[in-house]
Write a structure and sequence with these properties.
150 residues, globular, alpha/beta, six-stranded mixed beta sheet, D-tyrosyl-trna(Tyr) Deacylase, Chain: A
Length: 150
């Protein structure tokens, strides 16, 4: 699983011009799922995201986690995170998981984030054409991939 985590002051997602998910201070998480990903990847990422110390403490140092600042989470599925761009100009998504694999893992990931954070996690609509709006705070943007845990 690959994620792009952005610290935000606000974020929202629209489908068919309707806002279906929105948060104030917290994290926007774009998640891409590969064929080889498992629930172990989902568990590792959900814990890592909730405990990442990327929020400022009282001295302005990034030393607090989402849990410590009572932040929110918005998760958006994004298979394009697994784009292969080595050959030609048209990205290949051959390693991205098909819906029969990715939907259950996406739902597991969201459930684990909810359990770890103790809050409802806002989401987009899996597989839909979405418009995502955000105000990146910092800016702070972190990329993590479960294939690079070490």
């Amino acid at each position: 699983m690959r994620v792009v985590v952005q610290r935000v002051t606000q974020a929202s997602v629209r489908v068919d011009s309707e806002i279906i998910g929105q948060i104030s201070k917290g994290l926007l998480v774009l998640v891409g799922i590969e064929k080889a990903d498992t629930e172990e990847d989902s568990e590792w990422l959900s814990k890592k995201i909730c405990h990442l110390r990327i929020f400022d403490d009282e001295e302005g140092v990034m030393n607090k986690s989402l849990l410590e600042v009572d932040g929110n989470i918005l998760v958006i599925s994004q298979f394009t995170l697994h784009a292969k761009t080595r050959k030609g100009n048209r990205p290949s998504y051959i390693t991205a998981a098909k819906p029969d694999i990715s939907i259950p893992l996406y739902e597991d990931f969201v459930a684990r984030l909810q359990k770890e954070s103790g809050k409802k996690v806002e989401t987009g609509k899996f597989g839909a054409e979405m418009q995502v709006s955000l105000v990146n705070d910092g800016p702070v943007t972190i990329v993590m991939d479960t294939k690079n845990k070490e």
